[in-house]
Amino acid sequence: MKLFLYFQFLYLFIISIFFPLAVNAYAGPGVAIGAIVVAITVLLTFIASSFLSLINLIKKIFKKVSKKKFIKNKNKKKNKS
Hints:
2 helices; elongated
């Protein structure tokens, strides 16, 4: 009897997963405000991340250019001596 009851509940559980009933609920304006805040946060985070990555790239390029100029200037000074 327990085994039959177990399988009956298991069957109902599986059926409820594949065929859920429609639920009508009022979320209210709080959910909309929350969704807007989350969307703005994600957008600002993406923009800030892109900006910081761009700054990092510019720094790396600037360092490479500075090193090349420094090496050229150093070689010119050695050749003059």
